[in-house]
């Protein structure tokens, strides 16, 4: 009897320990997930005048663009109280600042801070094509941005539900050109060769593809894709 009671007591202690470990693991995972989500920039910006009064702006960290001589940093907007470590789902990218490390000059990608930048991608080409993959180096030749310029759906916000402008610039953010406006959905892109960007998008219910020369900064052609069956 004493042996049975002893083992029952041990099992009860084990059960409590397992429960505590499980609760601790659950709390830790919740904290980590919240931290990961909190570090993602928001894709929603209010346009209501009374809410914009609480909006603040702050510059993010500078990073080098490929192996070039320029750095760039995002300009974030957010509500007061989110600036402790540039964390929080209320932060949104509104512009980019470029810095030339040679002459220390700087300039903005856009002239103001009224836009919402949904995404910015560095476009690269592979140099030294004869080398093994692990030894290849990528050189940035342009920047592709998805930008919301106005509240097209009338909900007092700039967000991914508004019409997009697809914008490209050179690698240093100097020459900024619109590829296409009033896009409903961006469907992806690919570098066809060292100079040619191919991107796909949906507009007015129809999918399109554009071929764009980065070197000449001009449209090569635009085609309407096959309609859905």
Task: Note the topology.
Elements: H1 2-38, E1 44-46, H2 49-52, E2 55-59, E3 63-64, E4 70-79, E5 92-100, E6 106-108, E7 116-126, E8 138-148, E9 157-159, E10 164-169, E11 176-183, E12 185-191, E13 196-203, E14 206-213, E15 218-224
Antiparallel strand pairs: 1-9, 2-4, 3-4, 4-5, 5-6, 7-8, 8-10, 10-11, 12-13, 13-14, 14-15
Question: What does it look like?
Answer:
By secondary structure, the protein is of the alpha+beta class. Helix content is 18%, strand content 44%. The protein contains two helices and 15 strands. It has helices at residues 2-38, 49-52; strands at 44-46, 55-59, 63-64, 70-79, 92-100, 106-108, 116-126, 138-148, 157-159, 164-169, 176-183, 185-191, 196-203, 206-213, 218-224. The strands form four sheets. Strands 2, 3, 4, 5 and 6 form a five-stranded antiparallel sheet that branches. A four-stranded antiparallel sheet has the order 7-8-10-11, with no helix packed on it. A hairpin with a 4-residue loop joins strand 14 (206-213) and strand 15. The relative contact order is 0.10.
